[in-house]
Write a structure and sequence with these properties.
Number of helices: 1
Distance between the termini: 31 Å
Radius of gyration: 14 Å
Strand order of the largest sheet: 1-2-3-4-5
Number of strands: 5
Largest sheet: 5 strands, antiparallel
Helix content: 10-25%
Order of helices and strands: EEEEEH
Strand content: 35-45%
């Protein structure tokens, strides 16, 4: 993970397919993970329950989400 702006809570994770900035956001009722797609600028926040859910998903469950043509690059999307 590459650090962003010298803040130990921020970083960039990337490979040839994607690059995202990650940080801890403390502006809500509790801390949550802030993830920003550096190509599109789109931001998503994940709270601790959502993160824990990802850890407990059965192997292969995320595979359908990894198909970029399913949602990420569709022109008819808002």
């Amino acid at each position: 993970m590459r650090r962003v702006r010298g803040d130990p809570g921020n970083g960039v994770v990337g490979n040839e397919f994607a690059e995202v900035a990650v940080s801890i956001d403390e502006e809500a009722n509790g801390p949550r993970l802030r993830i920003e797609d550096l190509r599109s600028g789109r931001v998503r926040f994940l709270d601790p329950l959502e993160l824990e859910t990802l850890v407990h998903l059965p192997e292969g469950t995320l595979q359908s989400l990894l198909d970029p043509s399913a949602d990420r690059w569709r022109e008819d999307r808002e």
